[in-house]
Amino acid sequence: MKQTVISIWRFYLEGFRSMTLGRTLWLIILIKLFIMFFILRLFFFPNYLNTPAVGADKDDYVSRELIIRAADE
Predict the structure, then answer these.
(1) Which long-range contacts (CB under 8 A, 24 or more apart) does 47-51 make?
(2) Alpha-carbon distance 43 to 9, whole Å?
(3) What is the pLDDT of residues 12-21, one digit of tens each?
(4) Could you tell me the pTM of the whole model?
(5) 49: Cβ contacts below 8 Å, ≥ 6 apart
(6) How does DSSP assign 16-30, residue by residue?
């Protein structure tokens, strides 16, 4: 079992070492993930739960917001 895991690890390690175009593609993928999860989240997805529901129970706030937003549609 241990030898199998080591051989799989070496296979992937050698594959990533010999990549030229693949490294560029992985860099592009990582940059896109960073933009999607950090930049867009900061500007387009505000955090509704922590700001208005500080003094009240969060479950009551969420249920009221769901009812209000469902009624607006």
Answers:
(1) none
(2) 40
(3) 888 888 888 8
(4) 0.45
(5) 58, 61, 62
(6) HHT-SHHHHHHHHHH
